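Allow me, if you will, to draw on your knowledge of protein folds for a short while. I have a record of one protein: its chain in single-letter code and its fold written as discrete structure tokens. Could you please explain, in whatever detail you think fit, how the structure tokens follow from the sequence? The record follows directly beneath this note:
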Amino acid sequence: MKTWIPLILLILVAAAAWYFLRPDTPPPETVEAPPPVLQPVEPEPEPEPPMPSPPPPSEPPGEETMPEPEALPLLAESDPDARAALGSLVGEAMAARYFVGDNIVSRLVATVDALDSRQVPAVIQAVDGPDSEFQATADERPFEPILNEQGDPIPQFVLDSANFSRYRVYVEMLEAADAGELVALYRQNEPLFEE
């Protein structure tokens, strides 16, 4: 439960970047073909002898052809590439410290799928949570007291301000990540996310 806030932030930023930076494809236009016009048939002229084909153009020196995009690894073998991609986004030390080391792509997808549930199980989370424990402070004078069945006040708690510092590093990591690079990585690896 303690890692869901930065994970949600990371996923929301990625989803927003994907949504706003994806290419818009307009619906195909339907064009009606004009009715065929019949033309009189003319006799075909005799074919001329073929001209020799020119040699293929050689590449000018210094120019390189565009490399083929690298083939994606199998999902089960994608962890090294996923770690490298996270390292390029947030730095290798931060990626090693705050992200899980195995089944990264599968965990990211499972986490997003589980966000509509009451709790995201720790076994599927892709981000390691804060080291410190969640802090709550008893609210001695609540705005509206809550009473149990016997009419006794039930203790109420408020979020301790110390909790905000628990997530500072996650927020800074998200702010430092290049959104364009994040979107490019998502597009490049989209087939893995779809598996």
Residues 1-19+71-137+155-195 form one domain. The longest helix spans residues 4-21. The longest strand covers residues 136-138.
